[in-house]
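Your task
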Amino acid sequence: MKKPFFYILAISILFFSCKKETPISSDPNQRLEFSADTVLFDTVFTSLGSTTHQLKIYNRHIEDLKISTVRLMGGEASPFRFNLDGESGTEFYDKIIPAEDSLFSFLQVTIDPNELNTPFVVEDELEFVTNGNTQTIKLMAWGQNAHYIVGDQHVSSINGAFKIVADSLETTIWTNERPYVIYGYALINSYGTLRIEEGTHIYVHEGGGILSWSDGQLIVQGTAENPVIIEGDRLEAYYDDVPGQWDQIMLMDGREGADHIINHAIIRNSYIGINCQSVFKATQNALRVSNTIIQNQSGSGLYSVFYPVEMKNFVISNSKGHAVQIHGGDYRLIHGTIANYCTFATNTFAAFALTNYVENAATNEVFLYPLLDCQIDNCIVYGSNENEIITSFYEEADSTYAFNHCLIKSSKYVNYPAFSHCIFNKEPFFAQTKQNDYHLDSIGSAAIGIGNPAIGNEVPMDFDGISREGMPDAGAYQYVPK
């Protein structure tokens, strides 16, 4: 019974031992092909490594090809690092690519700092020699010097490392000469002030953020032409709109006369955009936000617990959670666009959530706040859900709220007295919700002309500097005919 098996095995061995190997070509006309002729890295912060880029090397011919030499021309001094077929180095010899096959290679770059404030380019080349042919691949990367804020302190009350950037009785100014890169938390200590000037660009690593401790103060002073931008530190195009890349801006209770000011800022791709809470005591200050965009959060855009907040000319958009989540406090929101068209997750959270309590999910304990007074005027609250506003109150706490002259997506509150001169469930016709463009894009927009002129006079220019004279539109932007 075993004889046929050994017979087949012997024939198989004879067949494979007689099979001719594919010859290695010596034809100088047979050249390599590559997945790119230039490997270009997006801006890389000096002293920090880059992401990995892939370069594929193809043999499109019916014979094997031997690459006599592969060289990283800058050698050991090159800022680039090269890995070929699983092996790292700067020179490789006699690498064979089988017929109609390919090799994988990977590249990274680390750029040494210099004295330049503006981005600069570093370059090198990969040289491939095959059958006497020399082929080169260009390597290019933009380098950017930066100020690095690296957390080096720990306390049990802060979840993560932090570095004090403005100590007690100290005012620290961040300028726009170079970007700031934060690892951990940049902490404003009690009675300290951090002032961020126009055009400053802040990149925050995963898990980090800006934290104003009790009685600290944050002042962001952007302009329409040069806003302050706060975002994650992944610079590849893929990460332009990925939420949750960093943690949050956390503002604790403050002292009288030391309001937190955020004007002309873009805050994007965080877990929470702005988180303001009275932690140790009832706050004596307020958060005042104007001409600011908060977008692409994996949690909430604005999360506020028992805090006074004033917001004018603002856009809060595309959160996996509530775009605005309020638990007690004193609020005045004017000419804002609050919109949840979450494209990176199935969104079941209403854009706007309003309560006078917080609940401990672990213990089911409910804590009531003694005051909730929320006034929303000339705003848009819209999104992809049927109801974009939810409210929940305990009668034991004093709570009032009012939506006036707003465009709202809701089937629940149409006849509620707290909603005065509001338009329900009529399309705002935003320009591009997937691109976070919430300009009004059609003369048919239900937001046009529904604002209260008296409220419009409080904010006479829209987010783009367009006059609101006459009957203003609801939201952050006036409609401009094409």
Summary: The helical segments are 3-18, 453-458.
